[in-house]
Amino acid sequence: MRHRYDRECGEGSEEMSKVVAVMNTCSKTHTVHAAMNEDGNVDISIESDCEKIMDLSKRLKYVTINDVTNFHESRLNDEEMRCGIGFCCLIFTAVTQAAWMELGMLSEGHAKKVKCNMVSYE
Question: How far apart (Å, rounded) are the C-alpha atoms in residues 35 and 2?
Fold first, then answer.
C-alpha cells in the first residue's frame, strides 16, 4: 500500500488504487480497490451490484504480478475464476488496471488525467 502525505491532516495517509467499471450493456457497476500487501502481491476488494461479480469477489482476494503481466498464465483467465461471467464483462480489465496502478506500472497521475478508457458501439 502506498504511503502519502496528507496536506489537510499534516500526516501520512494510506491509499488504495480504485478503478470503476461501468457496464451499460447490463446496467451494472463494479468498483475495484487494490492495495499492495507485505508479500508483494496486490490485495483486491470488489464491490458490485452484480451477483456474479460478488461471487467472484469471494474467489479473488489478491493478484500476483504474474496474474497482471502474463496473459497465458494469469489466474484471471482460469475457468474457475471466470465462472458464469460473460466474456465482454470489464471486471477483469478493471482488476488488472487497479493492480497496475498499485504496482506503479500505470501512472496514477496519467490515469486520473485521462479519466477513462472506453469501448464504443458505432
Answer: 8
Q: Is the domain defined by 16-114 classed in CATH 3.30.450? A: no
Q: What one-character-per-residue DSSP string does 13-67 give?
A: EEE-EEEEEEETTTTEEEEEEEEE-TTS-EEEEEEES-HHHHHHHHH-SEE-TGG
Q: Are 49 and 28 in contact (CB under 8 A)?
A: yes
The span from the CA of 34 to the CA of 38, in Å, is 13
Whole-prediction pTM: 0.86
Q: Which three cell numbers stand for residue 55?
A: 461471487
6 SS3 class = strand
Domain ranges for the chain: 16-114
**pLDDT tens across the length of the chain (122 residues):** 443 333 333 343 357 899 999 999 999 999 999 999 999 999 999 999 999 999 999 999 999 999 999 999 999 999 999 999 999 999 999 999 999 999 999 998 999 999 998 888 99
